[in-house]
């Protein structure tokens, strides 16, 4: 079997989930998030673009309902032994198959948690599901139950995150070797992703972000490439990925002579991320991290140029995003605990002067100061 964890670890994860279900008085969970299924069972697929769900009962019973294309995928990559297939057909409604399965599992009238907030649950599926089971039992939105359990990483998970971080460093090395006037963004991007594949890594859960010139101010991937000018700026955001675990990094590289504004914004990024390191530890919340970010940026007159979040939790994620639910934004009460992998990014996009500056890396939280997972320093990058 293509499992990345020992069976004992999957057993421990199931025990944690069942304890939380008991606490929430749930008789069953319907898991639709692919990362929840991967974490709980090892099941590895992109088949969640179609209807599938993992039913988990309070007694530990697990049944996967999926398509025929994913039968062998589940058999090879997971610890799931009971796999049911819904049949592709005209006007198929797999939620009817699910309802019949729930009856078979003696869950009529039960309290059932559902993962609604996931890319594995489309609006159409949600409507079909609610139509079938809204009167079947008491349906509870339990979108974040497994997500919160996944926040603190096990020793094996941490080893995968550290491997992903090393691959992210390799990708930056590959990029820096090419960045110069006249360099093609396509070659830079190919070198970065190639370094990760060559190191045994995976596709990331979303595209790498690459943009130069005016496009260096963008925070999302877009199609199209350009060559670097003699005086230019290049923003990169990428993640090393190993066994689906991500370690993200972000940098803006200045080509040619940096402007005073580039230096000014870099200093603000560096000061802020260093200040955040003092609160990125147990005893503080995700909201405290954002408050530190906002305080320093706003004191420097950068309120209009910063974002309304400054990072998020990372782990094993699937397309279309490597971001987890828990983000550093105003008022987030999520407590920071030891063993979390957290991405901190400073992003300043000054549209008034057309200047971009970013700085970001992934940390592992400890009982004291956070541990940077990158071998690269937070230096000003100039080529």
Task: Report the count of strand segments.
Answer: 14
Indicate the radius of gyration in whole angstroms. Answer: 22 Å
Which structural class fits the helix and strand makeup? alpha/beta
> What fraction, in percent, of the residue positions are helical?
25-40%
Q: Largest sheet, described in full? A: 8 strands, mixed
* Integer average pLDDT: 97
User: CATH H-level name of the largest domain... which superfamily?
Assistant: Creatinase/methionine aminopeptidase superfamily
Looking at the overall shape, the CATH architecture of the largest domain is: Alpha-Beta Complex
Low-confidence stretches: none
Tell me what portion of residues adopts beta-strand conformation.
15-25%
What is the H/E order? HEHEEHEHEHEHHHEEEHHEEEEE
Detailed description of the structure:
The protein is α/β, with parallel strands linked by helices and 383 residues long. The protein folds into 2 domains: 144 residues, Creatine Amidinohydrolase, Chain A, domain 1 (3-Layer(aba) Sandwich), CATH 3.40.350.10; 218 residues, Alpha-Beta Complex (Creatine Amidinohydrolase). 33% of the residues lie in helices and 20% in strands. It is built from 10 helices and 14 strands. Strand 5, helix 5 and strand 6 form a beta-alpha-beta unit. Helix 7 runs antiparallel to helix 8 and helix 9 runs antiparallel to helix 10. The radius of gyration is 22 Å and the shape is elongated. The N and C termini lie far apart (47 Å).
């Amino acid at each position: 079997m293509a499992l990345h964890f020992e069976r004992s670890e999957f057993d421990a994860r199931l025990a944690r989930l069942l304890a939380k279900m008991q606490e929430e008085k749930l008789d069953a969970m319907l898991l639709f998030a692919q990362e929840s299924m991967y974490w709980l069972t090892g099941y590895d697929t992109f088949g969640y673009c179609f209807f599938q769900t993992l039913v988990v009962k309070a007694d530990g019973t697990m049944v996967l309902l999926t398509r025929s294309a994913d039968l062998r995928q589940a058999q090879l990559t997971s610890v799931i032994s009971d796999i049911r297939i819904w049949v592709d057909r005209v006007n198929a409604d797999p939620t009817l198959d699910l309802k019949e399965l729930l009856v078979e599992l003696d869950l009529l009238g039960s309290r059932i948690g559902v993962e609604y907030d996931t890319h594995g649950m489309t609006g159409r599926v949600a409507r079909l599901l609610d139509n079938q089971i809204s009167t079947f039992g008491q349906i509870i939105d339990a979108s974040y139950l497994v997500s919160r359990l996944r926040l603190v990483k096990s020793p094996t998970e941490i080893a995968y995150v550290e491997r992903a971080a090393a691959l992210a460093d390799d990708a930056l090395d590959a990029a820096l070797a090419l960045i110069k006037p006249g360099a093609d963004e396509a070659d830079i991007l190919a070198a970065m992703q190639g370094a990760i594949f060559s190191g045994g890594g995976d596709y990331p859960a979303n595209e790498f972000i690459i943009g130069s010139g005016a496009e260096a101010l963008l925070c999302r991937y877009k199609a199209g490439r350009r060559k670097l000018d003699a005086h230019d700026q290049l923003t990169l955001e990428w993640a090393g990925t190993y066994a689906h675990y991500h370690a993200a990094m972000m940098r803006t590289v200045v080509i040619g002579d940096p402007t005073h504004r580039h230096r000014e914004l870099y200093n603000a990024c560096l000061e802020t991320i260093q200040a955040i390191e003092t609160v990125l530890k147990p005893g503080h919340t995700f909201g405290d991290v954002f408050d530190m970010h906002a305080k320093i940026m706003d004191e420097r007159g950068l309120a209009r140029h910063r974002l309304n979040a400054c990072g998020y939790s990372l782990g094993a994620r699937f397309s279309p995003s490597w971001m987890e639910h828990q983000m550093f934004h105003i008022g987030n009460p999520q407590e920071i605990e030891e063993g979390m992998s957290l991405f901190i990014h400073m992003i300043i996009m000054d549209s008034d002067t057309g200047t971009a500056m970013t700085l970001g890396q992934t940390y592992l939280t400890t009982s004291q100061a956070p541990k940077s997972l990158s071998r690269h320093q937070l230096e000003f990058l100039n080529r």
